[in-house]
Amino acid sequence: MTNIGHRQMQSMLQKLSPQQIQMIKLLELPATMLEERIKQEIEENPVLDEVLSSDASGENQVKYNIDEYASGESNYSYKLSANNYSKDDKPKTVPLPESISFLEFLEGQIDFLDLNELELKVCRYLISDLDVDGYLRRSSQDISDDFEFKQNLEIPTEQIDKCVSVIQSLEPAGIGCRDLKESLLVQLSRREQTSLVKLAYKLLSNCFEEFAKKHYAKIMSKLALSESDLKAVIDLILTLTPKPANQYSGAMLYEGNIQIIPDFLLEEDNEGELELSLNHYNAPDIKINATYVKMLEDLMVRNKHKNGKAIRKGDDSEAATFIKQKMDSARWFISAIKQRDITLMLTMHAILEYQRDYFMSGEEAMLHPMILKDIATKTQLDVSTVSRVVNSKHIQTTYGIIPLKFFFSEAMQTDGGQDVSSREVKSILMDCVNNEDKMRPLTDEALMDVLKEKGYVIARRTVAKYREMLGIHVARLRKEIV
């Protein structure tokens, strides 16, 4: 019979504190999201306050005289940017052009069509179901089931197909199609029906698989085309777009264009030395609100006798506890932001020192092999911390805005035993492909031989891996008719 009873067991567990979790989350944020996170904290914590330009001189800085907060005044206010403008400077605003989203652009077109209420409803649903490239990837049956289950409407697939045809008649051409083949055919049907357009339509209708795999010999045999005719047809097809939504210049499919904001700024001073700084974008300066500090002081004084014995007052005690909790939270948040900046600068300085040859010259061949562990060892940080710093961060240099991941690459050895960056090998691969004979593109084995001649001894599977990382197709798909 099993004995049931209470026992004490001692064990060791690793658990992150709330401050550590907050620090980790802030460390992962790029400059654009840091602004949103700080503003969110200001909204949620009434003790935190945004530093206005009038406070920049320090006249309105809070002086803390509460025992719990007496030490380290700098812990409670933090400037993320410098105010280098005088009161006479007028702020300059850059006007942004007004634009409507791609979905609004399509909905605006169907409003002018002669559609009944049900057709209009289905068309609006189809527009909302388009993917980022402008394709309708779902079948009419699935869409019909959606209406039946979600809106209790029985709409036959024939009605759905009719509305899909309506969407495909909108601008830009090729929108609302189910796949690439259908989209290209719709785009050709909108062109002036010349003999070349008709021939291109026939080729895509009957030989799309061969065209996608660049089996040009099979196409010429099947359609009885000469090499010059096939080249003319291919040149015409290449003027079509595989992503119809990209033809709309007003905006992207869902939201505005993605703008990369660098997290670091790298400049050269007059003596040619590199100067690194953090870019805080529009992140506001923050501090602890003086009103709540004074309020907490008053509550603590009111809850004490002259002899120091505490008076139990329900409302005052709860208010004091609430304010102290919020002040602790504000203090932790400000400290986490400061620690984030220190960690970012420490890591970026290590990368800058490691890749100094590249930053001074801008030549990709000057990049040294570098992995996360190298920077972790140099900064005495954990590899996971360095990974969080590098992830989704960018630096602005005189050579453009570069993601931090760009500077990390594997080490490879030449036949002379010298360590080189794998990025250098990728650069040579790209040059070989760009300069190859397009009628007879280089295979992976041929590329391996070229690298071997240049002193880089690597396996064919490694060549294939680097080729795929560079987005280069296999030799058969790179073949062109010149």
Overall pLDDT score: 78
Low-confidence regions: 56-78, 80-97, 250-257, 305-313
Rg measurement, Å: 32 Å
Largest beta-sheet characterization:
4 strands, mixed
Any overview of this molecule?
This protein has 482 residues and is α+β, with helices and mostly antiparallel strands. It folds into 3 domains: 17-81 and 256-408, no CATH class; 102-247, no CATH class; 411-478, Arc Repressor Mutant, subunit A. It is 47% helix and 7% strand. The chain has helices at residues 18-28, 31-44, 102-110, 117-128, 140-151, 157-168, 180-189, 195-212, 216-223, 227-237, 290-302, 314-354, 356-361, 372-379, 383-390, 422-434, 444-453, 460-469, and strands at 48-50, 77-78, 264-268, 274-278, 286-288, 394-397, 400-403, 411-413, 419-421. The strands form 3 sheets. Strands 4-3-6-7 form a 4-stranded mixed β-sheet, with helices on one face. A 3-stranded antiparallel β-sheet has the order 1-5-2. Strands 8-9 form a two-stranded antiparallel sheet. Strand 3 (264-268) and strand 4 (274-278) form a beta hairpin. The longest helix has 41 residues, at 314-354. It is extended.
